[in-house]
Design brief:
20 strands; globular; binds zinc ion
């Protein structure tokens, strides 16, 4: 990891082609869903399962129970009966994974193994699919947070992709315009209002544009602040506890409506640290499935003039501390880091490890510092 070019973040690696334009083609969705080569990432009550040390995936052709379930669901696609409350199942198409041995193809153009996320929220009295229908899954344990960060990035990214859609399908059950039930369309990537009574106005169903509900993503800005020559980096300790560790990291906050990324960064920086930032640029982004965030990793350049860089924690009570550290010193500890969720820094302080976008940003500043000083030699 040089830290100089845009890094690939954890949860940010994609190896399925989402072919988003095919989701609205029922023939494609049906054929992908019933193809024996298709792979499903199963979830129970919103959480995926582990098979040993890896994420459990199921090949449709190898599991008769799953084939029976899909057979029951196929006629219900794009109808009210597919709702998770009625069927017990949330289902979403993730994409086609192009591999040498994939046999599935559509219209001789789109090839690859179809991937789906499937979530079972069963009620034996009311849902179409019952507990006995998923007995094949009972032998597996649910994924824990610590499991995820030990997965390879491509698998963790697949998990994150499935989890965000399935979480949304499971939580959003009613139309925000009229309160009628909504049901998934386009292979579980949009929700349609079920209200057919035209005398009742629904500002979702009757909208001229976007007359469906889309999944949400909540953007969060996360900024590494540095001096223009990269010799200083500002790291902060939040009030959030990290076990027995004293963690210093970059600062972060949710973007608000009608805010640019740049404005959100400069606002968060000033509110939390009192620092006045002069320039914002985006370095990398990271999907974060807890629950549906997009971390927008930025660099904030501060022109030191005796005022801009002055730290004040008096505006917002979010931080316990913020300090300007010598980038050279941070770089020394970064160079010793060999992986893991925490990076040891001086005085018992830890910095976030490589799965966090904050690490990528700190590493980026250190890389820039090194490069600037190499060129001086
Ligand atoms: Zn509605």
């Amino acid at each position: 990891m040089s830290g100089i070019s845009n890094p690939t973040t954890f949860f940010g690696e994609t190896d399925v082609n989402r072919v988003s334009f095919l989701r609205s083609d029922p023939e494609f969705v049906r054929s992908a869903l019933s193809d024996k080569s298709s792979i499903f990432v199963p979830f129970i009550s919103g959480e995926a399962l582990m098979e040993g040390k890896d994420l459990l995936t199921i090949n449709l052709g190898a599991h008769e129970e799953l084939q029976t379930i899909i057979h029951k669901l196929l006629p219900l696609l794009n109808t009210k009966e597919i709702r998770i409350d009625a069927s017990g199942v949330g289902l979403t198409f993730l994409g086609l994974k192009e591999t040498l041995d994939s046999s599935f193809e559509y219209k001789s153009t789109y090839k690859g193994t179809p991937y789906f996320g499937i979530n079972f929220e069963l009620n034996d009295d009311t849902t179409l699919i019952k507990l006995q229908d998923i007995s094949l899954l009972s032998q597996y344990r649910k994924v824990g947070r610590e499991d995820i960060f030990k997965l390879s990035n491509d698998v963790a990214s697949l998990y994150s992709h499935a989890k965000m859609y399935l979480d949304w399908l499971s939580k959003y059950k009613f139309c925000p315009g009229c309160g009628s039930v909504v049901y998934p369309i386009d292979a579980g990537t949009k929700l349609q209002c079920s209200n057919e009574d035209t005398s009742i106005r629904c500002n979702v169903r009757d909208a001229n544009v976007n007359n469906v509900c889309f999944p949400r993503t909540d953007p969060v800005v996360i900024v590494a602040m540095t001096s223009r020559d990269f010799s200083k980096i500002c790291l902060a300790r939040s009030r959030r506890r990290y076990g027995d560790f004293i963690m210093y990291s970059t600062i972060a906050g949710f973007m608000e409506p009608a805010e640019t990324v740049e404005n959100a960064c400069t606002r968060e920086i000033w509110e939390e640290t009192g620092i006045r930032c002069n320039e914002i640029s985006m370095i990398c982004t990271q999907p974060w499935p807890y629950p549906v965030n997009l971390m927008i990793g930025c660099l904030g350049i501060v022109d030191f003039n005796g005022i801009n860089e002055k730290i004040s924690l008096d505006h917002d009570a979010e931080l316990l501390d913020a300090q300007w550290f010598d980038t050279e010193e941070v770089t020394q500890y970064l160079d010793k880091y060999t992986g893991g969720s925490l990076l040891n820094f001086k005085d018992g302080i830890v910095l976030p490890g490589e799965t966090a976008v904050a690490y990528q940003l700190i590493s980026y500043v250190c890389g820039k510092f090194k490069k600037a000083n190499d060129s001086k030699l």
